[in-house]
Amino acid sequence: MQHNPIQRGSSRTAYGAPTAESALATNKVLRNTYMLLSMTLLFSAAMAGVSIALKLPSFGLLSLAVYFGLLFLTNKFKNSAIGILCVFALTGFLGLSLGPLLTMFLEGVPNGGELVMTALGATGAVFAGMSAIALTTRKDFSFMSGFLTVGILGAFAVSLIGYFFGGLGAYQLLMSYVWVALMAGYMLYTTSEIINGGETNYLMATVSLYVAIYNMFVNLLMIFGMGGDD
Question: Residue 90 in contact with residue 42, Cβ under 8 Å?
Fold first, then answer.
């Protein structure tokens, strides 16, 4: 699940370099983003635990409708306190929707718990790596916007087709690799946008990074599972 990465507010100067005032604002956005991201990840994990405990069924395509609805509300109220509630509603719902997949691995795969932890660790490592690149180089990766937009929309369309026409086995494994690559790039792009003033709203920045982490984890889990013939 992903939203369009193109539209951003900007506090860059005409020459692309941030002013001293915008640098302070950027640091605040980055700090608030990481703080809210940590909270939403914990909340989402708790909701996944609830889903596992209650053995909730998969939401199927309904999850897409709910996701895009909550994403719309988050964007609509991104400059108000209601927006924070929308962010938690969105991430909490995605946590609930993750429960059935985790249950399948934990109960149906002999080394399912190990695979889940491996995917979680790998996701954290990729996120840390992409963040470190953006934070240390301070390079502007806004040029990736068009590629990521086309890639994400294309991968979403192909994945949706595969959902209806038997997207299993080698096909699903290939698409998982594509999603992992796209989400790694999106993590780098989004963090760069925050640092360079292209993203000035920490609620939307949080949602962007959360969704990238979510998709990264899910697809790494599928890769590890299918790679082990599980």
Answer: no
Nearest Cα neighbor of 180 from 153, 152, 205 is 152
Closest CA to 4 of 138, 204, 172: 204
**Between the CA of residue 150 and those of 41, 66, 142, what are the distances in Å?**
27, 23, 14
Q: 67-71, 142-146, 163-167, 210-214: which range is least confident on average?
A: 163-167
Residue scoring higher pLDDT (127 or 26): 127
Q: Is 145 helix (H, G, I), strand (E, B) or coil?
A: helix
Report CA-CA distances (Å) from 3 to 24, 64, 67, 91. Answer: 27, 12, 10, 14
Report if residue 5 sits inside a domain: no
Tens digits of per-residue pLDDT, 56-115? 998 888 899 999 999 999 999 999 999 999 999 999 999 999 999 999 999 988 899 999
Contacts of 80 by beta carbon, 8 Å cutoff, 6+ apart = none
Q: What is the DSSP letter of 197?
A: T
Tens of pLDDT, residue by residue over 152-180, are: 999 988 888 777 776 556 778 888 999 99
Length of the chain: 230
Cα 41 to Cα 35: distance, rounded to the nearest angstrom: 10
What is the Cα–Cα distance from 230 to 221, expressed in whole angstroms? 11
- Domain of 28 in residue numbering reads as 20-227
Q: Could you tell me the pTM of the whole model?
A: 0.87
Rounded-to-10 torsion of CA 87, 93, 97, 102: 70
Number of domains in the chain: 1
**Domain membership flag for residue 80:** yes
